[in-house]
Amino acid sequence: MAFEGLMVSVSGVRGRVGHALTPEVVAQFAAAFGAFSLARSTSRTVVVGRDSRVSGPMFHRAVCAALQSVGADVLDIGMAPTPTVQLAVEHAHAAGGLAITASHNPIEWNALKFIGSSGLFLDATEGAAMRAFLDGVIPRATWDALGVVREDDAAIARHLDAVLALPHLDVPGIRQRKFRVALDTCHGAGSRIMPQLLDALGCEVHVINAEPHGRFHRPPEPVAENLGELEALVRSTGAAVGFATDPDVDRLAVVGDAGTAIGEDWTLALAADLVVSRTPGIVVTNLSTSRILDDVASRHGGRVERAPVGEVNVAVKMRSVGAVIGGEGNGGVILPDLHLGRDAPLAAALILQLLHVRGGTVSAIVHSYPQYRIVKDKLDRPDASLDSVYAALRAGFPDAVVDTQDGLRLTWEDRWVHVRPSGTEPIVRVIAEGPTEADAKELVRRCRTPLDALAKG
């Protein structure tokens, strides 16, 4: 099957609706995934959930029909966070799960995320094996062996209960604090769980963009430049903290008590501050995450190990090294005690617990650590290989520690830069961090020089 116009990666398959991504394409991928999953499992069940995107209901029907056509029984949890889909796969001992979501991508995109029977996303090897079904004849069920569809309307409630039952949380203590919290769910699936979580934790909640209609009036990625409304809400309500979720609720951004977004890298850092202080150990994150996480871990006797970008890459490494917590610097927090997947409700609960036990403010906790500045740049992905760019950068920075797990990461004692092709968009990302913004920008500038030259041919 030709993938022209689609982004096919360890994160699933993504495309622009009505262009590369059509119901026919989605149905083919869903059928291939169903056949692949049933061939590897004694279960016949595949969990299906979606975010709030306008195209979601259309693709949802195509996915369910395609799964039935290969003999899979669909467990439909409806509009739900991606981590809820993962937990539902584990709960049902299902053969796999499909989350219909383009996560943080703009409104014109949608996607499929492929979840294995373990509740983790398919890794690169599994993804290749699944896509092999697209190149052959997908085995279809006859009329008497078609799958059935069952609805599960309790998946979100189970997810919420699992978070609240975590031993890391003192739920009665948090409730007594009556935290005032500002919340922006960006018209996504977060409205199905985040207000309920905060209410269960005794918070006074002020919410905006709560209607889950998927018509994002701003870019849905929860990065600082998109959170002006939430910053204003924190200031106007005097909230202790502001939380923003992306459309499928696996990422959480934080606005501090001063009404300023503190940067998505701090979400994992704050959660790790709580967990590692109680259980010193290994923290796993990706190569594009701030070194503030190293400072947090070392303060409490832990250490950081890094993996390629991509949730499954981090999760697999966490499992292999026995990490106590992990995640990505985009606001994704993974706690093995819950499940090996990024989870925004989990992140919010851990941060509220941190505020409870420390008795201070978000600003005070952030400023108790060294301060760095991170700069994230991107450019259209050139048609040519990036190998020549990597070689030029290694020659230009001979004193750097080199990591080639995922593109090229160059590291020094107080700064780093990471150059890699995105797995979710047709771009190259250049991310740098240093003691000052000027330091980070200079690293980005020097790395863009060979990239711009390659793009010009």
Task: Characterise the protein shown here.
The structure is a single chain. The protein is of the alpha/beta class and 457 residues long. It has three domains: 7-153, Alpha-D-Glucose-1,6-Bisphosphate, subunit A, domain 3 (Alpha-D-Glucose-1,6-Bisphosphate, Chain A, domain 3, 3-Layer(aba) Sandwich); 159-366, Alpha-D-Glucose-1,6-Bisphosphate, Chain A, domain 3; 373-456, Alpha-D-phosphohexomutase, C-terminal domain (TATA-Binding Protein, 2-Layer Sandwich). The protein is 37% helix and 22% strand. The chain is built from 15 helices and 20 strands. It has helices spanning 23-39, 56-69, 82-92, 124-135, 155-164, 171-177, 194-200, 228-237, 265-278, 292-299, 311-321, 344-358, 362-366, 387-396, 437-456; strands at residues 7-9, 12-16, 45-50, 73-79, 96-100, 109-115, 149-151, 180-184, 204-208, 241-245, 252-255, 282-286, 303-307, 325-328, 332-334, 373-380, 401-403, 408-411, 416-421, 427-434. The strands form four sheets. A seven-stranded mixed beta sheet has the order 1-2-6-5-3-4-7, sandwiched between helices. The protein has a five-stranded antiparallel beta sheet with strand order 16-20-19-18-17, covered by helices on one side. Strands 9-8-10-11 form a four-stranded mixed beta sheet, with helices on both faces. A hairpin with a 4-residue loop joins β17 (401-403) and β18. The longest helix is centred in the C-terminal third of the chain and has 20 residues, at 437-456. It starts with 6 loop residues before the first strand and ends with a helix. The mean pLDDT is 96.
